[in-house]
Amino acid sequence: MTYDLTDRRVVPLDLDGVTDKAGLMDRCARALALPDWFGRNWDALADSLSDRTVWPEGAAGRGLLLVVRGWRAYADARPQEWATAQEVFAEAAERDPALTVALAVGGSAEHLTDRAGRSDRD
Known about the structure:
globular
């Protein structure tokens, strides 16, 4: 188990290769070890993220830091779905202040270059 400096349980959510909502839900279910009855829809995700009884072991009493990485390709491919995902993450974090969702910046250089070949830093 991994914990951060404030003793919260850290769970990585790797979205590398995710191309649709079903893939996102599968990765969330796997990363968070959600129960089989997890509904794999936006409402179920929001409920699960803000329900400490289904959080990974060690998180309920200490807090949960969900670190989302590899999300840029999904955000580019499905911007409306990604916007909804961000709303769900924010809503769940508002419901329970022991939850923090952080979007990791980084990844391969291909995600930092726009279609014209310019980097975001140009």
